[in-house]
């Protein structure tokens, strides 16, 4: 592996040699007042370098004793620190501090030495900033408008089914003026303290309707538990009448209703308003619904694939109470429909 000479390696080497002599001049972070230097500031002896050039020794910018950049003069070193700090300053900045103790230190350069790499103030500042060799802590006081979130309020309604919701009134965010103190380190916010909050506009609640209506009650619009009397005039329980087996004697027995051929899943509706007196499985009928329409009239809906009505429920004429199927003693999907008048089976087709 080829070893690449790097600036940081050179720094590390250089750092080991540091002896904080009396020539070190403190560059106080915020005030950057260097006027109280112990050593006369002009005491600089020119040096003849190996390449024949004559220069006055350059100065290190140091942070907590570590050399972080090399520039032409002590003044430049001070400028570098100032420049690093200033780049984090903006119109909201109320305070700037540098965490590290900074100073300028003259390089021990002797006659015949190689020319060191000296940076301009801009270069040095850019390098220190990019390597974050100084921690510039700024405090900003910012005032800005912020939204205030609105609350959601629920209101119950029997106009919607259980589980359904609807926005009755859209919420509206409010507005507040917030004054805060933001502490940043090298431009990154590390702490925010709210100093003051002032409401400019109150938020408006969002009102959401939540349904309480149950599904079954939606299907059967009549309320439960009340006696329901039919009109006496029956409607067809399926959407089309296709008699596959009629009422009366059949295979040596009496067929108690009519068989209406329909695809599985077709809706079966109550022939008239009434009360569901049975909804369940019943032997050869399979899934069966019986509806009492009053006046001694009861209708049967058999072989259903699915029962939607519940026993005890009242239904309107035409309400969907079940779905066509082939349960029980059945050879294919159809509705077996019976009409009983005072307990006696009648031909349903006479009533449709
Ligand atoms: Zn039948």
UniProtKB/TrEMBL annotation:
**Pfam families per UniProt:** G5, Peptidase_M23
Q: Which residues form the G5 domain?
A: 134-214
Top-level taxon of origin: Bacteria
Record SMART domains: G5 (SM01208)
Signal found in the keyword field: yes
For the keyword Transferase, the answer is no
Gene3D superfamilies noted in UniProt: Glucose Permease (Domain IIA), Resuscitation-promoting factor rpfb
Record-given protein name: Peptidoglycan DD-metalloendopeptidase family protein
Q: Which UniProt keywords apply?
A: Signal
Signal peptide bounds: 1-33
